[in-house]
Structure formats: C-alpha cells, structure tokens
Amino acid sequence: MANKKLRVLLTGEIDDARLxxxxxxxxxxxxxxxxxxxxxxxxxEDADIVAGQLSPAALMRGKNLKWVHSWAAGPNTQLYPEFVxxxxxxxxxxxxxxxxxxxxxxxxxxxxxRNAMRWIEGHRSRTWDAFFHGELNGLTVGxxxxxxxxxxxxxxxxxxxxxxxGLRRNNQHAANFDRMYAREQLRExxxxxxxxxxxAPKTPETTDMxxxxxxxxxxxxxxxxxxxxxxxxxxxxxxxxxxEGWIAGAGLxxxxxxxxxxxxxxxxxxxxxxxxxxxxxxxxxxxRGYQIFADNLKRYVAGEKLVNIVDKQxxx
Length: 316
Known about the structure:
Rossmann fold; 7-stranded parallel β-sheet; 11 helices; 12 strands
C-alpha cells in the first residue's frame, strides 16, 4: 500500500488539454476522466481525490477519499449530512463567477433604475415611447456579503459614482465600500439603500434573513436584487413586498425554487426582472473554476494547504 498511486477521478469541464495539464501537475498520480457521474462513482472505492459531485452512497464506498472538489461556487448540494459528518475535505470553485455576477447585478440595477422593460415593450410594439428615467449616479447600493462577487460589485458600483454600503458577519472594512455594517445593524443598513444586492451564500444563518420586517425597513423606492442563492429572502415576504409596494421592484437571478415553476407568481410581479440563475454562465467562469482545482492539485501534491476549503458547518 505504501507504493499505491494517488488516484484522482474527474468529471466536469475537462478537455484533453486540461487533462494533460493536470497529469503534468501530478505525474505520479493516476488521473481518470468520466463523462457521467455514475461511471465515476463506480470507480470510487480506491479514489483519493474526486473533482465533481459525489452522492452519499458513493461517499460511503470511498474509503480512501481525502478530498472532494466541487465545480460549483456554492457547494450546497454536496453538503448532505453524511458529507458534513465525514472527515473528507471539501473545496469549491467560489470566486470563479464573481466578475460576471457583478456585471449581471449592474445590468439589473441599470434596467430597473431606467425602467428598461418599458423600452423593450416599446420595441416589440414599434412604439416611440421616450420618458424621464433615473440614473445610478449618487444612489446607494447595499451589498449583503463581501466575498469575491461582493467586492467586485463594489468596484463596479464605484465606477458608476454610487455610494456603496456592505453588510457582513462582522463590520471589517473591504475595498471600495464606504461603510460596512454588522449583522445586528441589518435594518439600519436596509433603510439607507436604493438597491439591496444579495451576494451571500444560503446557509443556516442566512436562510430567511430578509422577511417582512426587513423589507418594510427598506425605502419604498428601493429595489431588491439577488444573484447568489434564493432563500436568503423569504419568498412570501418578497412577493408581498413587491406587489404591495413596500419596495419598488426586484431583479432576480437566484430563486427559492429552481427552475422557477411556470405558475410562480414572480413571473408576473410588477417591476420585476427574472433571469434563470444564468448570471455566471460564461466560458471564463468555467476556466476560472478549472484553474482553482489545478492550483489546488499543485498544493496537494506539494503537501501545502488547499484554498477554497469549505467550512462544512457554516456552509461555505
């Protein structure tokens, strides 16, 4: 057993060039790529490392497993009870979609602020419908979560001459934020914002973080934007906030139920833009996710500490 080769099983976005690069990083390891999760799981018994989703049954069979990497930025689907209880290290691809997600939030804020759907309807009906609209200059955006995407969004918002507030588990400062609030200051924070953007993951701590009292603390002219995970806002409270005028509207890329059902009332909510959790679906996001794993494989082979290790109790 002392001479056993390191066994690495991979699924996901791995082409021949990337597989060759990984083999050059770990030349003494046996690397195997699988198109299907089931085919990979059939070989899990003697695997040391898995890059891809792993079911509870496969985890139980993987007696040699030391490390699992999730290609997703948010590893929620991997955090089932058996995995949380196991000693296997979990890493994720957080940060890979920060740039396009921040861009998506800026797009939604611009569209909501300028009532862009009115232009789209005018285009469809061939109606020349000019009107006064807003501008982001001088408005306040509040960002819940100051991770990779939150920090990138703060930079982009500053380029639009916005005031940028942040809220995180502590009030430690981060670049391009004018002020940082702690969790216990949530309602004070919400009352300051013209846009509230959720970039935080869904965890036991953040689930239903925004309910009726929180939405009522927002300005009636403010918009809610979410691109990280649905469920940080309570869906019933959010829908009431939009339809009863507690807030001005919403831009929703992440939803409490996905795919969003065809009969969901959110499709017809006023001043609301729905996108299909699609904000980070770019080839560059995939490339950055691959690079996170490749860099971590270098660290593993060298006996160094991995990055993007998930705190399985905290959920991110």
